[in-house]
Amino acid sequence: MPTSSVAEKSLALCQLYEAELLLELMLRHWQHPCADDAYFRSQLLETATEALRASVSGAVLIEGISPSNMNLVAAVWYAESRSSEDSQDSPSILEQRELWSIAVRHSVPSCFCDPDLLD
Length: 119
Prior knowledge:
By secondary structure, the protein is an all-alpha fold. The chain has one domain (6-109). Helices cover 60% and strands 0% of the residues. The chain has helices spanning 6-13, 17-29, 38-56, 72-85, 91-107. Helix 1 runs antiparallel to helix 3. The mean pLDDT is 94.
């Protein structure tokens, strides 16, 4: 039986309530300015799911993470980075979103590299 990649497992997780919970906890823990916006959370999870689909298909989305090792945390971070690029938010909100992105990447660096490097 073939082993599923991290990206495939993460993509499967996106269909579960736990993905919504993880996303909300990530947004609230690191004080994302849009954490209370249900529509934003839904769109962010949808975009993260699309990112994982692209990774499963072989796309490199984040330098240092091979497509097969893309995980849900990194996909959410990637989706937020893409979302803020296209945002019409005020400079203050954009700054808060950037601080969130920095905090996530700094707090869980193991989510932003291939797992083989952690051994």
